[in-house]
Amino acid sequence: MPIFSPDRHAHVPSYVKLTKQPIAGGTYRPLANDEDSNACAPSALSGHHGSKLYTQKSAIHAISDNTSIFISGAGTLPCLPEMASSGSVSKAEIDNNEQIASSELQPHQPAEQPLNQVVSVCKRAAHTTAKTLSTAGHTAVKATKVTGHAIHTAATAVKNAWHTFINFKAVQLIIKFFRKAYGPWKKRMRFSYAFYAIVFTLLTSAEVIFLQWGMYSEPTYDKGDEVDQTTKILNSVAGQVTKFVSQMWLEQKSLFLVNFVGLGLIYLALIFVTNRFWIATLLFGTAITAFGVANSIKIQLRNEPIIPADFTFISGGDAGNIASFIPDNSQQFVENAVTVVIWIIAICLLLFLLDRRKCFIYCSWRKPFASAKNTVGTFSRALAAVVSVVILASYATNLGTGGSWSNMWAAKQGYTPTLFDAAEDARNNGPATTFLSLTKAPTMDKPEGYSKQKMQAISKKYSKLANSINKSRTQQLTDSTAIMILSETFADPTRLPDITFDEDPIPNIRNIMGTTTSGTMLSPGYGGGTANIEYQALTGLSLANFSDSMIVPYQQLVPTQSNPYSFNQIWTQKYGESGSEAVHPYYQSMYLRNTNYKKFGFSHLYSLDSATPVEHTEKIGESPYVSDSSTYQDVLDLIKNQKNPEFLQVVTMQNHMPYSNYYEAEDVLQSSVTDDTPDDEHSAINVFSTGLKYTDQATLDFLSQLNQINKPITVIFYGDHLPGIYLKEEQNPDDSFLLHETDYFIWSNDASPSANVKLDDSEAAFSSSNYFMSSAAEHMNAKISPYLALLTKLHEEIPAISRVISNRGGIGLGTATYLQSDGTVTDSTSMSKTQKQLLADYKLVQYDQTSGKNYLKESDFMSVD
Fold first, then answer.
1. CA 540 to chain centre
2. Using CA atoms, how far apart are residues 29 and 371, in angstroms rounded to an integer?
3. What is the C-alpha to C-alpha distance for residues 584 and 578, in angstroms, rounded to an integer?
4. Taking a C-beta distance cutoff of 8 angstroms, is the pair 628, 654 a contact?
């Protein structure tokens, strides 16, 4: 074994003592740095035999000259190059050298030398890794100690500050007060379930009365009318609400009870789901009060109550936009309602704190089955929540379905639904009942004889009719650009009695109507319902054929359809995606137009918030709405950039309510009204009519610019409904029908073959929006599809169909109103055989498209050759 002299390495700080080894012969060979590495020279080791031997723990650094090594035995030992050159030797290297020497002395074991080298490398790697981990560990421990010290210092500072604070005399007084008050606080009573029942009954009753109060308005009387005080009291809002409640005893009609049960089920569901009586009371009181305020304002503006479909406005992000429609005279009402809601919230939170009973039904979610009491409580709490929701859902979804349990029970209490007129239904039956009865709206009753074979027969029947009509027609619809313009609330304001103007608000449009196809449109809406009239114009379907509970197809029907048909598809079938576009200078989610237009196949909807918004957004005066002239300019831009003829759907916004002082005083039209017309109504009529004057001029300019374009273009222009500002006329049955009449015209530019065409008044004097596309095809002398052939023939026999409530002609019209060519009303029972058959076929086609199997889709019923 090689032995190194310790005195030659005295400069190294630490050594390991080795046992003394005897020298049993051998030879000394000097070890020189400059000698060949394969031979070792003897070195003198005198005086070392009796000394104690040490070796260094880590690498030994020594000068190689005058170094000696003793090799036992007579054999020769090759020196390692690392030792010879550097003179640095570690214990591991010494051990390795011993193994190498041993292997040379034993020539029959040559394989051990590489193995020992691998072991040596592994030892060195392990040593390096251990050292690295040790260093990292020390660093982490040190960082932890520093962090802990910092936290401890901060905690001590906070603790000292807290002790300093609570030692203030004033703070000590507060602490002593709460310590004394804690005892009585712990002993505060749990409110009894009887008290809960009283609060439940009073609040639910108050909300029923509040909702019903919002359905009425104070009556007005002509100066010449002699009305006694008792009649005035009974007809007042308070009198009508009192009658609604008292009819339980006077007329045995418990409609108050029906509404109480409907709201009560909502209240109970909130209680059992939250398991907190006062939190549920807060939610119920706040929500129903807000609902009542919104319902009252909507009745005032549109003569329509809140329905479930209206909540799509909120889910679509239009809540803020709807709030902008609140008229100025309702601002105080809204502020008062907000005050009431704040009081409800404050009182409920206070009672929640004072009531020691937190859970309405005892339960423990932490230990639900720790005891029999916990088990029963947990089970009861979960069961009550589920059952209350199920009962509410069952009651609401069945209330509008004849023969169901909730409908039959409500009928026994005097419930008689008239959902075709939601406002009247809400006045008679209560807005809560009307709302709940519309939560599940069947689209349409199945017509008698509906089958695949029947629809195939109808397809063949009207294909023959289309072929017959097309023989005399020479044009194609798709050779022209068709622009369907829904002009917001456009209607001749001079049509209503007792209102006269110093100047004609619409002289230009009146002149246009005299020279082209035009007439009066029967509208299902008054004060609102834009989307319904638009739906009829785009699809050719009539609301009169739907069930009473299908009030807004844009919100209740179209979103659930996979491939609804609309007339713009005549152009998209020929030109693809570029065949139709839409412009609406407002927000795209209003009435879910962004969703519905995609389903109809429009390539783009240009709105204020669309991906590519409308470019022209100028307004008139202080009006918040984009002017008609700006909207027309956007349409002109589309026409100039189009690659092929298109179907363009346009919905304006300029004349949307409310009608505040938007325009300069000198520009506002002045009207004369009867002396008993309220000032607010008179002012609104003047502002509305002024807006029509601007529309009149903008429309004339628009048509003039279309005449400068060398492309065939046809415009279908119509007003959707009158604004809900004619309060006096609403109360007069003789005027109710007039409130559903608007104006329309179909016009073609000079580049169109149908320029200056005017259909005979016998065909055009009266119409409804579902007929506009078939009338436009007739005006353009264009070939039609079997579907348009049905509408053409139906229009000849029944000029107007609409869902209107009117007593005109002494007929109770129910859900559908039918006009003859002279404008007189007829009902289905007095129709001719041909009219009845056409109407039956129409209903079958509408049912197939909306509720049935869509058998007609398999045929060419919608295709134009």
1. 28
2. 93
3. 18
4. yes
